[in-house]
Amino acid sequence: MLPHPFQEAVWIQFVELVWAAIHTVSTCAHNHSTINATKGSVGCSSAAESISQDTTTESTSITSFIAVLKLRCVNTNRQIMTCLFRVLHIILKLLKLNDSELKDDFICLSIHHIQKLHWDPGYRLNAGKVVSIVTDDRHSLTKDSAQFGIVSGSLLQLLCSLVEQSDTEDTDLRDIFVELADVIPRLATFLQEQQDIPKSLSQYSKHKILMLMIRLKPHIQQNCSHVVCLLKLLQRHFQSPLHEPMFQHSTKLENCLEGSPFLLSGVGLGELQDKSTRHLQRQAMYLFLSCSIVLACSGNDSRLKCSCKRDQCCHKGEGCTDNCNYFGLSEISVWFQRCCLDKILDSKSSTDIVLCFLQLYMEEDDMLFIILLQLLDAPLISLAIDKMETKWTSELIGAKLFSVVFDPVRIFHQWLSLLHYDHLVLVDYLISKDVGVHCAQYLLRCLRLVSGCWDAFVDDSVYEAQIQKFNCKRQRTLKNINSLTGSSMEGTKLGSSHDKENKSKEQLFLSAKVCLLSLKRTLEDLHKKDLFPYNPKPLLKSLSRFEELCVQY
Question: Which residues pair with 305 in a beta bridge?
């Protein structure tokens, strides 16, 4: 910690110095690349001069340093940008570790400078002897592209560290995070245009951009226009992972990742790429569903503000909120139709869709519980559609089906079945430092839902009836479309007659009952011995209520 004002001022000056160096080297590299490709000469614009002058210090030391650096920038090492970003990243880690008051100042200052970085289509962040794009030396070009990927990866790593993972909005930093969110479209477009980056680095960049978007969402979702922007970015830059079928990847839980999905030793290149692809798919689908549900339920949240332009959303309602509401519902409907209903065979049932979806997320515990918590809002989609004008609801059958297929009580049942009804797995989740809180939240909310929907938990035939009802509407809609286009395509059957599990509904209920009651006894025993890491009384109370319902049944 740095309590002394003088020390704080020195730290701020040092951070300003690092950013001034980044801008200077970045600008020199850009000019060197541009001029060398046309005139064969080297030059350096005065863009960095304004950066060096835009500092909080009255000293001329930074300006003097920049003047010297500009004279030497042609001979700088090509890793200098990476090193500077890593220096900033380490500083931020130390500020967080010491819980320093300078952390917020560092975040604000860094975002201020990030906004000033060049994001031109032909611009590269890497410094040093930049290879001309018109060169015939393919080896040099490949090496330069890899270096660019490393530099951009270091920047993305810093960006993600600036925004801590949180479920709630940070009101103190909300405005500065909104400014950072405005940078993402330019950054995503800039990185996508670098076509010659190695695939592994490209995958890593996509992973970091998605992580940044996920972390920013709680801070910017109070304005519908920001959520619409995130959805449009997903559609523009992440079409492949977002719409890739969930059913084509084999799930191997014994080979799940312990660290980064992009850095794993001891596996083949094909398996590694498959793991990273599935990770991107998990991130993209979670962000998509989270943003779509926020918009779909926007009419029920008076806290939501909207500053969307008239051409940003579909205009199916009277006001801006109605437009955003329909836009979110329409996005879910189209995605579910394309990603699930159009990609499965007749032998796949609605249960298979749920199981494949859950299996995709079972490989990463932290992603599993945030998506499970998000799916608890699935019924709100159906309620939002019911409130809309009748003439628009026929276009949202896919969203209706999604709401029923992914009903929280049904999801809870299928999740327990994937755990083989092993209550000790639940205990491991609950005591985990990484996911324990989210697991406890999920169990509490599910047990509350089960208490209110007991008949559906015991016998899910009510969901089958609803699915068949909406699927018939969907098939009639498809039949009308096919009659106009001459296509013979038939609607996908979503019945439960082809379920892989041959157990009776009674047996499924009994298995869930044994699992949850065993969990209750284990938690009571651990709590009595003072071995549980936190107070399990709220969860034990909900499990006791579940036990009472079992006795009555």
Answer: 223
